[in-house]
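Tokens as discussed.
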């Protein structure tokens, strides 16, 4: 609040707007306020199964959680106290934890030991290397586009485009490859004389958006569902556009191959099919999450 020369109070508009935006941000993060049509800030009721109200007790039993909020909070607080007490007792002799002198004593944790690769993933990599020994990840990305045509979904936000579709397709594939593998647009541009870093940067800024990526992921997923063998994978009825969290869920599954520090699972993602070995012999996968966050 500010006051006029005559002493009358007045609301400072700039400060008021900043306070409102800050409060809105906090409410969006805890989903007290939600946005229609959004993904991350969607209606919290969309995060639970449709029959959650009728099957509430069944779901809580499967998750081994209490139905009362007070009981859950007490259990969580007790678990935190026990873990903090265990940390306090074991810090002097724990080789994985150390107290730094920085800023009054920061706690430093050593990196976790990577878990071994699942046997099925090792077998899949060996079969891919045996069947396509000279096929690069960029070749797989190009072949996928030739089969399903997902690059046609990347359009300019304006009504006109200067580039023809063949040139745009070529640059889109290079840009998606550079963003998805983490190689970077500069590195990709250095290996192709007909395209420069500025060309790829223009493609990323003008054509690659979150909505376009979600549509492209859905189209690739639908193509994989249509081509899979029912005798191996069973009959499926879902399509990419029917998945509630296509962009986030598939990208999370695709990126788990890069970091095997989490618990192993038997989940599979269509995006995990984009795997190939680099010249150094290590394997990597095209992460749609990396592309989406870089857009």
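Sequence:
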């Amino acid at each position: 609040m500010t006051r006029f020369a005559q002493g009358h109070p007045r609301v400072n508009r700039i400060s008021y707007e900043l306070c409102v935006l800050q409060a809105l941000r906090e409410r969006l993060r805890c989903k007290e306020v939600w946005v229609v049509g959004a993904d991350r800030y969607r209606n919290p009721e969309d995060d639970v199964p449709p029959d959650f109200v009728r099957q509430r007790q069944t779901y809580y039993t499967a998750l081994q959680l209490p139905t009362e909020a007070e009981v859950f909070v007490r259990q969580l607080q007790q678990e935190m106290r026990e873990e903090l007490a265990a940390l306090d007792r074991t810090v002097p002799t724990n080789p994985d934890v150390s107290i730094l002198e920085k800023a009054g004593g920061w706690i430093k944790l050593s990196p976790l030991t990577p878990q071994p690769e699942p046997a099925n993933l090792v077998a899949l990599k060996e079969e891919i290397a045996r069947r396509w020994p000279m096929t690069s990840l960029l070749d797989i990305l190009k072949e996928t586009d030739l089969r399903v045509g997902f690059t046609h979904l990347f359009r300019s936000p304006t009504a006109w485009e200067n580039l023809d579709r063949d040139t745009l397709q070529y640059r889109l594939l290079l840009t998606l490859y550079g963003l998805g593998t983490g190689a970077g647009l500069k590195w990709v541009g250095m290996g192709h004389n007909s395209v420069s870093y500025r060309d790829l940067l223009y493609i990323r800024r003008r054509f690659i958006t979150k909505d376009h990526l979600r549509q492209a992921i859905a189209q690739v997923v639908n193509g994989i569902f249509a081509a899979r063998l029912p005798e191996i994978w069973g009959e499926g009825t879902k399509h990419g556009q029917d998945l509630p969290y296509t962009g986030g869920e598939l990208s999370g599954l695709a990126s788990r191959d890069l970091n095997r520090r989490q618990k192993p699972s038997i989940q599979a993602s269509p995006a995990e099919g984009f795997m190939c070995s680099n010249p150094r012999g290590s394997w990597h996968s095209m992460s749609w999450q990396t592309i989406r966050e870089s857009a």
